[in-house]
Please model this.
Amino acid sequence: MVKRPTLTDLAHAAGVSIATVDRVINRRLPVSDDTAQRVVKAAERIGYHATSLLKRRIAETPVRKFGFLLQKRDAFYQNLGRELVQATKSAKEIEGKAILEFIEELVPAVVARRLRDIAPKVDALAVVAMDHPQINQAVDEIVARGKPVVTLLSQITTPSCKGHLGLDSRKCGRIAGWAISRMAKQEGRIGILVGSHRYLNQETSEISFRAYMREHAPQMQLLEPIINLDDERIAYEAVSGMLASYPDLAAIYVAGGGQDGLIKALRELTGQPRPVAVCNELTASTQAALIENVIDLALGTPVLPLALRTISHLTAACEEGRFTPQQTFLPPEIFVSENV
Model:
């Protein structure tokens, strides 16, 4: 009589522990999709009696672990991170697990290293990053190993990236131009701050802002953009310098981060008219600044819709042969003192 394969036989054939096989069968704890598939193939190979049950268990709800690599641990990214983690855990089509990490040092080599570090721990990855050869190379390597990577908020140019989700940056820039051309005095200089031109969303916002101002307020003089690395201290120094150098400064547009530095500099302003100010994101500090008329308009990211769409995108990207990379652009939210 042929001996029926046991659980021990299956574990040996699959090259995993008995506990791992038990987790696959009974779904006690998450098991990676690769490991679960290896157990199923081993079960088919040795004629394990519960092979059909194993297949059903795997088909029911796949376990997916998503990684999120966000930028500096400020209020906006903390909020975005919370929503991404919650959306992962709440997703109905998967048993989702999330790994959330922040990058304080936005040097391309550091970002590339952090990407390579987190990739082995997850099934798919979403990242906020600048467009740089070192980062693109890291993404290429990760995708080549079967781990989809998508970008959030700012795009990168490597073709291997499996999609992008963020704001419509062209609309952001033109909305800022629309607001400033109507609220600012009709002659004067306009200051512009960007985190880095390697953030393609910020580059697009600045270009679109300039295009709108050329069309609708050509009499206003736009200054060359100042790079602030999305750092509030650098932004504070930049805005303070502009205010001191240009008494006719009519407006300031912050196309990236560093809005807290803008707010601090404007709060300290005395002896000259306050310029119109447009910046990004509704946080506790920008909300207070809007209410107190320190700034005039904030363009916000709809964080919850972005998080939900990101999880759907990553889930689909994990389905081999059934996914086409795509870009999702959300309209910005508009906040003024009367709607916060």
